[in-house]
Amino acid sequence: ASLSHPGGNITGVFSDFPDFGMKWLELLKEAIPALSSAVVLWDPATGPVQLNAVEAAGQLLNVKLEVVEIRAIADLERVFETAGERRPDAILILSSPIFGTNPKLIAELTLAHHIPTVTLFSEIARAGGLMAYGPNLLGTFHQTGTMVGKILQGLRPADLPVERPTKFEMVINLKTAKALGLSLPTSVLLRADEVIE
Fold first, then answer.
1. Which of 164, 176, 49, 192 has its CA nearest to residue 117?
2. Structural contact between residues 135 and 15, judged by C-beta atoms closer than 8 angstroms
3. Closest by alpha carbon to 62, among 40, 89, 35, 80?
4. pTM for the complete prediction?
């Protein structure tokens, strides 16, 4: 019914923050001042919340966005290959289990096709993507564990509000930036929680 009163037999931690769309594009604009186009990877199964926010941010920041639907991990190689031919300035990867569970593959495709990526999944940046800004997944797991504990003690899931993550992190892979020929400004690097050199 709502995040504070979910009803039914459901609760959890919800991490789709629409305002991340603006943050990701702002970070890309700072890292790549000439940024004018980006490909957005979107899994339609996740709903339109983040996509709508990113499209609105693209209009505000004057960045042309091409949305590409990804329905399975097998689509990724084809999409990166096509993007490599079109030469967008960057790829923005929205939230989806398809992306979050395949950080190594996405990092390899980022480097193979020489395209900077930004996402909310820090593991993609750690594996070789350019940047990530989003919830600290370890913190999210702790929140979820606390909720499970409450349910095991007898509370009904419907009585527990759906929580939002409380810890966020920004990870920048400087090795990847150098491999892509990018010189990231100090203002971006100083805001990072983790810089991989």
1. 176
2. yes
3. 35
4. 0.86
